[in-house]
Amino acid sequence: TVIMFVKPLRLAEPHTEKTLRWLTTIRNSPEQTERYKSHHYGNNVLARFEMPSLATEEGIFVNAAGHIVEGVTSNVFWVKDNKLYTPALKTGALNGITRQLIMSLMPTIEGEFTKQELEQADECFITNAVQELVPIKSLENTLFKGATGSVYQKLYTAYQQLLEERLC
Fold first, then answer.
1. Is the sign of the CA dihedral 100, 106, 107, 109 positive or negative?
2. Which residues pair with 18 in a beta bridge?
3. Per-residue pLDDT tens for 26-49?
4. What is the DSSP letter of 11?
């Protein structure tokens, strides 16, 4: 069976904030040591049904062990005490190209993190190749600095400069 979705690509303006929510769908385990982008997105489709609109919010997966993994269409980063965090690949996260670029711009602590660790963050943002860096203003009852976060601002500027250098 082949399923194809076709729709116009509407990009949000830079610094447009989104909200996060925890998904009830558990992230499936990687097929091997590292997850590769493939057709193994059954639980992403299930999770997508939990989200009324990805235009304004993103859902965050945890794995069977309860560790944060990634969003439905993104990698997740957060800042606590000016330190940058993201889930390790062994959680089942996809090693996205935008994720890799952000990690090359600032030392990043990778690990297995609980929901509570993200909920205690000062800043949060998600990344993917289409939307680039998207600031997060809240995760359910937790508020973040969103587009005004100093680490987000610094990384967004550095990311845009890197793109300009590589594309020109």
1. negative
2. 136
3. 887 766 666 666 556 678 778 888
4. P
